[in-house]
Design a protein that fits this description.
The protein is an alpha/beta fold. It is 39% helix and 17% strand. The protein contains 17 helices and 16 strands. The strands form 3 sheets. Strands 3-4-2-5-6-1-7 form a 7-stranded parallel beta sheet, sandwiched between helices. It has a 7-stranded parallel beta sheet with strand order 10-11-9-12-13-8-14, sandwiched between helices. A two-stranded antiparallel sheet has the order 15-16. The C terminus is likely disordered.
């Protein structure tokens, strides 16, 4: 379906045309009518499927700009996603009188208060900053909110925002529409759905395919000591427009950026310890294609849309399958081709089969292909850093139990 076929306000149609929007993505086509009719919605779709516009376009259509009040509230897990959301909605609404605004931590509340006193129709907020405003100021009135949106709902739950979200939702006792958008649907979301959504329309696209079809999954088996040189060789030989290189902690990222800065000119590093202004500046430079290689923690793995990213590189193997999904989802978005390269060491061989099965991945291997069947068995062995099938006299090399990986998840938040 084409956007010109929708019964949207002419100003919105013109803005979408200027943005180059022509055909609706599947998530947009499946959700627009339900949102515009006022139904509660539970939508699951792969990352990079156009969920931001699927929410933003109907909201701009439904806002009454003559009413000087917050009429739509969008909750997102991170400051970066809040900024991206409000930028997208600002483009959609630029020819209308609809005003979007974002509030988040790391920025002056006084400046945000001044804007809120002026005029805001669509408020995008991180849960923590919104609660700060509701507790300590009178700047935000939610009584006129007719549409509540939770985007990246699964990530907000994983980040520990469940109590904050429930408190915010319990404040909205008046009649309103509730929309849930997520790439995955963990069980914890079920209780929120049963409590706060009324007979929601359920949309689950590509439930059997976690990753976009345009995304190719590449892997290279390497030793830990060889991994840096393997990465450098890969960056030099591969035709890369832009790449995000993921590490599991700030410490790993700092070490890696120190090794790469002398070898590549256009490189940056993003992590949660940077001041908000610095983080925003780096993301904007990356969006403008002024940075080719961006080393990042998982801060950059959720929701953000960078149109020039051709490659995502997992220098550190991600913690869990969901993390793999969201990292690699930074490329191959909206049907654009993309490559996800993951460096695999001995420690990860045992979990690869599960990743391939659960994410329905057809892997493309660079270099030697390890024997995953042998790696997943206790009587497999490793010679010269390559896994081979069972041989009678071989003793198994001790592998780090998978529980050790899980134990380290608790420290992840401190390192982002």
């Amino acid at each position: 379906m084409n956007f010109s076929e929708l019964n949207l306000k002419p100003e919105i149609q013109k803005a979408l045309a200027d943005m180059g929007y022509q055909d609706l993505t599947p998530i947009q086509e499946k959700t627009f009518s339900s949102i515009l009719s006022g139904r509660d919605l539970l939508a699951r779709a792969e990352t990079g499927s156009g969920k931001t516009a699927a929410c933003g376009i109907p909201l701009v259509q439904m806002i009454d700009p003559s009413l000087n009040a917050i009429q739509a509230l969008i909750l997102v897990p991170t400051r970066e996603l809040a900024l991206q959301y409000v930028e997208e909605i600002d483009k959609i609404s630029r020819l209308t009188d609809v005003v979007p605004f974002a509030i988040f931590g790391g920025f002056s509340m006084e400046i945000q208060k001044a804007k809120l006193r002026d005029k805001v129709h669509i408020l995008v907020a991180t849960p923590g900053r919104l609660i700060d405003f509701l507790y300590h100021t009178t700047s935000i009135d939610l009584s006129c909110v007719r549409m509540l949106v939770l985007d990246e709902a699964d990530e907000m739950l994983k980040m520990g925002f469940i109590e904050d979200i429930e408190w915010i939702m319990s404040c909205m006792i008046h009649e309103h529409q509730t929309l849930f958008f997520a790439a995955t649907m963990p069980e914890e979301i079920g209780r929120l759905i049963r409590t706060y959504l009324k007979e929601p329309v359920r949309v689950e696209l590509n439930k059997e395919r976690v990753a976009p079809e345009s995304l190719a999954h590449h892997f290279q088996y390497t030793g830990r000591r060889d991994r840096l040189n393997t990465l450098i060789e890969y960056l030099k030989r591969e035709k890369i427009c832009q790449a995000i290189i993921f590490c599991n902690s700030r410490h790993h990222g700092e070490k890696l950026i120190g090794e790469l800065e002398g070898k590549f000119k256009s490189i940056g590093y993003i992590h949660g310890g940077l001041e908000q202004s610095r983080r925003t500046s780096i993301f904007e430079r990356f969006r403008r294609n002024e940075i080719t290689f961006m080393v990042a923690t998982d801060l950059a793995s959720r929701g953000l849309d960078f149109s020039h990213v051709s490659h995502v590189i997992n220098y550190d193997y991600p913690y869990g399958q969901e993390s793999y999904t969201h990292r690699t989802g930074r490329t191959g978005r909206m049907g654009r081709p993309g490559i996800a390269m993951t460096f695999v060491t001995d420690q990860e061989l045992g979990v690869l089969k599960s990743l391939f099965k659960m994410n329905r991945i057809d892997p493309v291997w660079h270099g030697n292909v390890p024997d995953l069947q042998a790696a997943s068995k206790p009587n497999g062995r490793q010679d010269n850093k390559k896994w081979f099938k069972k041989q009678s006299q071989a003793k198994p090399r001790r592998r780090i139990p998978s529980t050790n990986r899980n134990d380290s998840i608790a420290s992840l938040a401190r390192n982002l």
